[in-house]
Amino acid sequence: MSDELKSSTPQTPDAEPAVSRSTVPIWIIVLTLMLLFLGMVYFDHHGGWFNSQVYGPYASSEELELYQPKSGEAAILARGKARYDQVCGLCHGVDGLGKPGQAPPLAGSEWVDTRGIQRFVSIPLGGVSGQLSVKGQTWSLSMPAMGAAMSDADLADVLTYIHSSWGNKQGPVTADDVKAIRAKLGAHPQPFTDETLKALPQ
Amino acid sequence: MKNGFLVFLASLIALGGSWCGFVLAPVLQLGGGKQTTILNSSGLYPVDRPGMANQGLQVYRANGCAACHTEQVQQSGVACDVVLTGAGKNPEVVTNLISSLKLNGLDKDLADALVDKITAAGGKAEIRIVATGPDIDRGWGRRHSVAEDFLYDDPVQLGNLRIGPDLADVGMRQPDANWQLVHLYAPQSEVKGSAMPPFRYLFRVKKIGSAPSPDALAFPKDFGPPAGYEVVPAPQAQELAVYLLSLHADVPLHNAPFSQSAAVFKP
Questions:
Q1: B91, part of any domain
Q2: What is the pTM of this model?
Q3: Which domain holds residue B82?
Q4: What would the mean pLDDT of A179-197 be, rounded to a whole number?
Q5: Less Cβ crowding at N or C end of chain A, within 10 Å?
Q6: CATH of the domain at B150
Q7: What is the Cα A26 distance to its own chain's centre?
Q8: B256: which chain A residues are within 8 Å (Cβ-Cβ)?
């Protein structure tokens, strides 16, 4: 036995050994906090907030949503909705109900449903100015040509989405439709008015 | 005992904490599991097994199959493949475009951009979602296992050792009941070099009577019983085979998405 150990043994062998209280070393506290922090960071990246739908390689329910397979119509509608919410939804509302005094509703609007694809596609390509009656209400409009800068396929996706959402039940708009109508209107069409819109074929 | 209350409190917290973590949290998270719909279909998943397959689960359990086989597929990643579904009016342009591009194993943003490119060139393309990982590469399924897969298993036969292959979708890989039975009787006859012990006590070798039994196994060459004899599965073997055929955890679900094969355009 070394001297050091000897000196630390109790002087009286009969005494009850006791655990003395001492402070926890600061490095243990720091290490614990660091481990806790790393654990939180890891959880944030991989935990999915305990959502029972989120497994393995997916980090969150948003990421899981991103990787849902979409094909055909579902893919078109998903792309159309994304573009609509971003471009059209600001005024017409993500629910298609419009904004009073600013933009008429698209849900159940006769311009969407019954007045023909020619007029429906022309509106975003040329814009609208002046008085226009929508669902029995007269609107004073100045809509810019929001679709003029979009590609044929993108605009077709958006219009297909409008055509089949919020109770509207019209068929798909194809990129070829948009292309043909865009060619007919020319490069920089004037904003449409009630009269020039109605002058277009159905 | 000194500090008895502290010791009691510490062990209560330690045990209670792990009980909350290992028992309570999983029950809260997954305990309310129920049937879900299959992606892009109105079909429900899973459906309860037929009674014979449930009997087979007990045979599986009794023979310790889970000691060497798992029923859980892991997935380490997800990737997108872009497939051409139509060439449009300018097939040459589209085929030239895609011949210079990498179409498989992309992430979502890249795949979206590629589809836009192909659409701009006049073609039609679709994104296919593919699970990736060692288990998927081994052909043990097309997605990872989820809680729904085990909804009607009692008890769940997860297994944790893979001396043999994973069986989560063995009913899809080997849908032939005769194959399953012959493999149980003589594993090496179907899988060369298999380490699986033969389960011959689940079968009876008997002399062919006036007519061969309709249940008798059809063997590959060199593995059958001697001439004049046939091998007939006992009820347990038949139940086990039905159970194995009922294992097909391989449909796309919301929490385990993948694309089923689409009509691919071949230029």
A1: yes
A2: 0.65
A3: 77-132
A4: 79
A5: N
A6: 1.10.760.10
A7: 47
A8: 55
Q: Does A20 touch chain B (CB under 8 A)?
A: no
Alpha-carbon distance B75 to nearest alpha carbon in chain A (angstroms): 7
pLDDT band at B267 (very low <50, low <70, confident <90, very high): very low
CB B258 within 8 A of CB B129: yes
Domain count along chain B? 2
pLDDT digits over B60-105, tens only? Answer: 999 999 999 999 999 998 888 888 777 777 777 777 777 777 888 8
- Shared domain check, B223 and B161: yes
Question: How far is Cα B206 from Cα B232, in angstroms, rounded to an integer?
Answer: 8
Q: Is B154 helix (H, G, I), strand (E, B) or coil?
A: coil
Residue B162 belongs to some domain of the structure: yes
- Which DSSP helix (H) or strand (E) runs through A134? strand A128-134
Residue B12 lies in a domain: no
> Which phi-psi region, left, alpha or beta, contains residue A195 (left: φ > 0; alpha: ψ -120 to 50)?
alpha
How close is the nearest chain A Cα to the Cα of B26, in Å? 9
Contacts of B127 in chain A (CB under 8 A): 69-71, 75
Residue B45: strand, helix, or coil: strand
User: What pLDDT score does B184 carry?
Assistant: 93
Task: Report the alpha-carbon distance of residue B21 to residue A65 in Å, rounded.
Answer: 28
Q: Nearest CA of chain A to the CA of B99: how many Å?
A: 22
For A90-135, what is each residue's pLDDT tens digit? 888 888 888 887 888 888 888 887 777 778 888 888 888 888 888 8
In a mutagenesis test of the B interface, which of A19, A51, A55 is the best target, namely the one with the most B β-carbons within 10 Å?
A55
pLDDT band for A72, please (50, 70, 90 cuts): low
